[in-house]
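Thread: Receptor-like protein EIX2, structure

OP (GT): Posting the sequence first so everyone is looking at the same thing. Length is 1288 residues per the record. Can we get the structure tokens written out before standup tomorrow? I want them in the notebook alongside the other entries.
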Amino acid sequence: MDLKLNFRPSFFFFSFLIFIYLLQKPDLGSASSPKCISTERQALLTFKKSLTDPFGRLSSWSGPDCCNWRGILCDSRTSHVIKIDLRNPNQTLRPYDYYGTFQKGGLGGKINPSLTRLKFLSYLDLSSNDFKFLKFPEFIGGIVSLRYLNLSFTTLSGEVPASFGNLSKLESLDLYAQPFSNYFYKKYLRASNLGWLSGLSSSLTHLNLGFVNLSGAGETWLEDFSRLSKLKELHLSNCELKSLPLSLPSSANLKLLEVLDLSQNSLYLPTPSWLFDLTSLRKLFLQEVRLLGSISPGFKKLQLLETLVLSSNELSGEIPAVLGDLPRLKYLDLSQNSFQGQIHRFLDALSKNKGNSSLLSLRLNFDRLEGTLPESFGELWNLEILELTGNHFTGSIPSSVGNMASLKKLDISFNDMDGTIPDSLGKLEELVDLNLRENKWEGVLLKSHFVNLRSLKSFSLRTEPNRSVVINLPSTWVPPFRLELINIENCLIGPSFPMWLQVQNKLNSVTLRNTGIADKIPHSWFSRIASDVTELYLENNRIKGTLPQNLVFPNLAAFDLSSNNFEGPFPRWIANVEELCLYQNNFSGSLPADIDVLMPRVRKINLFHNSFTGEIPSSLCQLTGLESLNLRNNRFSGSFPKCWQSSSQIYEIDGSENIISGEIPESLSVIPRLGDLLLNQNALEGNIPDTFQNCSNLKHIDLGGNKLTGKIPSWLSKLSSLSMLRLQSNSFDGQIPDDLCSAPSLHILDLSENKLSGPIPKCIGNLTAIVQHKSVDEYYVYQEIRDSIDLSGNNLNGEIPGEILDLAYLRILNLSRNSIAGSIPGNISKLGHLERLDLSRNRLSGSIPESLAAISSLNTLNLSFNKLEGSIPKQLKFNDLSIYVGNELLCKIHPSLTRLKFLSYLDLSSNDFNFLEIPEFIGSIDSLRYLNFSFSSFYGEVPASLGNLSKLESLDLYAQTFSYDGSSSYNLRASNLGWLSGFSSSLTYLNMGFVSLSAAGETWLQDFSRLSRLKELHLFNCELKSLPLSFPSSSNLKLFEVLDLSRNSLNSPIPNWIFDLTSLRKVFLQFSDLHSSIPSGFKNLKLLETLDLSYSRLSGEIPAVLGDLPQLKHLDLSENSFQGKIHMFLDALSKNKGDGLVYLALNSNSLNGTLPEVLGALRNLQILDLSLNSFTGSIPSSVGNMASLKKLSLHLNSMNGKIPESLGKLDRLETLDLSNNMFSGAIPQSLAGISSLKELYLTFNKLEGRIPKNLKFKEPYIYEGNELLCGKPLPKKCPRKQQIAVVN
């Protein structure tokens, strides 16, 4: 086949032109010819020579062709250098990380003016290099060919040169001047005059002057920027602008502006309205500018807005719907303002917005928003970040959250969410960060909550300890996610350590606090996380087992395994840990001798309350960064390390409650920061080293409970920071040095249990910290004894110095167990904040000052075993008698009474003898016939000498006393009643109520039965525990008229011997725990007037025998378990020929049946209480015959029928209670005629009709619960027919 090529003439013509063009190109010669222009190469080398390059970034700047040098770009046609890009490749966008990152790879030195010889240079970027506050080069304004200039993060200083105005072609200028040195907030670059901006007005599109000080630019700064007519981006973050004009100048031309950043300036004004004329804005940053007021509706004009950041201002009000209407909004940050109210309107607008799918990030953190989270959240399908932390939201997470398919971060922490967590969360496959901490969650989390969270890397959940959240996942379930952070607190995961946790092998932060785990954690889990984990917090669980040994944790900074049940040896982990907390476990064995090698960076070691043994390793001294060492409550022995050096940073040492012996190491005194030295409860010996006077930072010293000897050092006063000095329970001797009084910061002084002697220094009132109540942060263990002085258990003598009263804020004073004499200072009330005072076991004399009662804060007092005398001030509120014992002359009744040989009547009742014992000598006044010590606050044993009073006819020892909280107590007791036989032939009245007879034995009744003339015996509340069922044969109580055994726990049936006491008129057995039925023997007590058997366990029917008692006037059987009907009892009563019953209480039993008509025969009855039983039927009409009745209570029965009109005849009735029954019909008009009626209760019946108008009770609650009642005082009005019927 022939091929024929046809070429047109035009093809040859164009081929020829291309050939000619290629011949003319300069680089078609030798391939090795340099393209760099020599003068420009020399300029670059000169520029390089002025720079410092510690990382060799300019090592390529040596060959002949500068166009191939790193960071250099030449024009491909002319070979001129057009671009220099020497930005630091290690620059970062992470805040506060500048110095460490930019220092690596950064250039330094000086910027050489040789750059001005590069006439075609259009691009210059020296950003993120450290020129160490070099003065801003003025010559840069001479490189007029520049279009792009970036000198951000270069730590230049001085004034931005006005010569920048010459750069008329410049399109982008970045001078962002935040330093990355330690002087973070200082601004080294400034622009005091912005006139040079006018030179860039027709070219500049991008300008960043962040961190350039514009405070000197005056109030026209905005006008200067507004001349930049082509400007699209303006960044003025943190420029010390102090004002923002509320209107733009007429010459302003910022219509093209797309990005405006005025953040971190103190503008302090509402949002200016001119912002809303910048309709091209896409991004607006106004965070931290102190914006005031509410969000303006003008935002609706910014229809192109994509990013709006208004965080950290003072905006308030509700979040308006106008923001939800912005169609292109992607990023909205309103955090850290004072927005209030709910977010429903704003979210509704968002959900209806046709462009709502554009919103990617919504941050509303730390405002004051409240209410529940609406279901409309679920319509934000494209939202990736939702942060609501730090508000007051309540309720549950809406279940619609499962529709937010794009969500990557959800943060609802620090709110008041008190509902449940929906399992729809488990649908969020893109979710990376879930933070639900610090709320009040409840409920159960199941597998469905987590099953699809394949992207989850961070999970935080914390509820309050008193709430209940249970994470109940299948024990063998393996989740689809691998977490990097887990933070769960106060939620139940345990008791096992579940599989879903065991498989987490990428963790770098672990917090599982108070999660109920009581399992062993596999050693392999620790091994899996060792390489990445930085924090490990497992405290407040019940985790048991041992820890693996010999692991390497290269990144671990802190681990806290405290308050668990770990056991075994200390973990030999190689780690850069800074905090090591293993306290409150069961670890044992010794500490590693090479702990300084294993954990060289540790700052805090807390191992208290374990079982560690052996010596404390001296390698601790090599941990120069160690700040806190707590070894309290272990079993360490041997001497304390002696190798401490001045380079040590330790400020707290607690080695208390161990078995440490030897002397206190002097090397401790060279530690410059040492503030707390706590070595109490050990076996230390010797003196306190004098070198400690150089420890100027010492605040807390506790060396108590050791074997230290010698004198109390006087140089302790030189320790100006010393707040606590505790040297108790040692063997210090000598006197308390006066110099100690000048310690300026001392709040706690405890020198108790030593061998100190001499007087208390008078200068003690100079402890200025207690005088002036200086503030101090006490070591937490000692907060309760702040502002205290304890000198007890020594050999101190002399008097209490009056100067001690100058310690106005003293809370605790203990001078007990010394030999202090003299009197208690009369004006002791000057110690107005005193809470505890112990002066016991001294030689104090005189009276107790009345002013002591004026110290309202005093809650503990002990004055026992002194030589005090006189009366105890009545205002003193203490009921503990032991605080006064051992003062023989205190509150004493004088024996001079024995000289009154004819004294027959002695009544000291209702006086306050402040728990004095009844004097023995009272038994010597043998002429006494009447003795009354009732209500007189006596204490102790009733003296047997009272049995010598053979003429005594009446003895009243009623001993009830009342404390300030209203409770009563037993202070008087009679353990042996043999002395009663001394007045067996004289005594007619005996009252021993509230005298404890618990130790008198089971023969107590036999002792009382010997009193043959006795008529009244009152043993009310005497702690009797039994009641003999038979009377001793020798008894002779035939004259008994009154027997009171009430309020004793007798736990017996009513004994038959009572019915032999046929003279009885009154029997009180209430609250005595009697049981069984009422015996028929009561028929023998024909003279009985009062019978009280209430509040016991009596049962059966109420017998007719009680109705037959002819003299019975008062009968109380309430609060028992009586059953059945009362017809037989009432029949007997009605036939009784006696004067008639006055008081009948049968309430609170289980009585039933109807009330018989015979009830009306009880014409003398004044009180009838049948409430709280099960009576049925109607009120008998005969009740109207009970003419003496004052109170009738049928409350809480099941009675029905109509209220009888005959009740109106009871013209003495004062109380009528028919409430909580089923009475029906109308309220009788006759009730309104009972003028004596004071109380009426008709609630919760089935009464109907109009309330009688002339019924005087107008309180609505009297009638409530009767749905068909109407008329005043009820709000329900009566129908007209009912009104007419009542009138007729």
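GT: Both are above now. Quick notes for whoever picks this up: The mean pLDDT is 90. DSSP finds 14 helices and 89 strands in the chain.
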